[in-house]
Specification:
This protein is of the alpha/beta class. Helices cover 28% and strands 27% of the residues. α1 links the parallel β3 and β4. The radius of gyration is 22 Å and the shape is globular. The structure holds zinc ion (ZN) (2 copies).
């Protein structure tokens, strides 16, 4: 299961109701912060999510409405000694700006109780374990080195406990062997194969986050069949020329991508103050009915079907 919390949903500048881009993804014990616009610390406090284990930060790109909050956040976290290390992943251009912000302005002194690792992003898997993978993919926006992120649960093959019991498989190492793919011979001489006791594979869920983006043409393979897609929707179709000029999407473009990619649920964020929320919703839902315009502190989760 992936849990997603919107901490800030405004484009470019905050509004009375919306903070700047920041999102929290939770998966088991992992917590990932995606972007940290100005005000992120306070949004984390207001959400009740807390700062614990907030040691993995993913940055979509280096524009200030996505990184300025790192200054305050890292200033706070670096002075606590609850975490040994914080990892910040971003494209090189964004990392250069973040490095200047953190190490020239906010934390110029040496000897911090915390290690801050700035890690350049490349397309491909960033981290994985036996249950999930996190990968980055390129996104076209203004400037170089913009990335989207895909969280994917791995396929799970369930062990059918009841069936194993019916077949007389004792609780113990025999079951472990079957899970590993090895046949076992029981005391009565009968042979049980993994096929006898393993269920049908259950596909994992996929959550995709795309920050600022001006062109959806190359996103399709990364977004395909996502259970949830979070993507910007800065403009309405009536202003599509402006969207193109500034490297952003309209609600129509975001919704069209969701249709083409066979996405299950669409969450729009990076909302401009120039529009009424209901107009953004109306435009998106006319094309893709499962579209939601996220607000600050909107939460959702995607989980595997049982
Ligand atoms: Zn932005
Ligand atoms: Zn931007």
């Amino acid at each position: 299961m992936f849990e997603f919390l919107f901490l800030g949903t405004s484009a470019s500048a905050p509004s009375v109701h919306r903070g700047l881009s920041s999102h929290l993804v939770k998966h088991r014990d992992y917590r990932f912060l995606i972007d940290a616009g100005e005000g992120t610390q306070r949004q984390i406090l207001r959400s009740g999510a807390g700062f614990k284990r907030l040691d993995k930060i993913l940055i979509t790109h280096g524009h200030l409405d996505h990184i300025l909050g790192l200054g305050g956040l890292m200033s706070t976290l670096a002075r606590w000694d609850t975490m040994e290390k914080i990892e910040i992943w971003a494209g090189q251009h964004a990392l250069d700006r973040i490095s200047d912000l953190l190490f020239k302005v906010v934390l110029p002194d040496k000897g911090l109780p915390i290690k801050i690792d700035l890690i350049p992003l490349e397309t491909g898997v960033i981290m994985e374990d036996d249950k999930f993978s996190l990968s980055a993919f390129p996104v076209v926006h203004r400037g170089r080195g913009c990335f989207g992120f895909s969280f994917e649960q791995k396929t799970h093959v369930p062990f059918l406990n009841d069936k194993a019991t019916d077949l007389g498989v004792p609780f113990g190492p025999e079951r472990g062997q079957l899970v590993k793919g090895n046949a076992v011979t029981l005391a009565d001489g009968s042979v049980i194969t993994p096929e006898d006791v393993m269920g049908d594979p259950i596909k994992g869920v996929k959550l995709v986050h795309v920050g600022d983006v001006g062109n959806t043409a190359k996103l399709l393979p990364y977004v395909q069949d996502a259970d949830a897609l979070v993507i910007e929707s800065t403009y309405l179709d009536e202003d599509k020329d402006m969207a193109k000029k500034f490297g952003h999407l309209t609600a129509t473009q975001a919704a069209n991508l969701a249709v083409e990619a066979n996405v299950k649920q669409l969450y729009l964020t990076h909302i401009s103050r120039r529009y009424r929320e209901k107009d953004v919703i109306r435009e998106a839902q006319a094309i893709f009915p499962n579209a939601v315009v996220a607000r600050d502190f909107t939460e959702f989760s995607v989980k595997r079907e049982k």
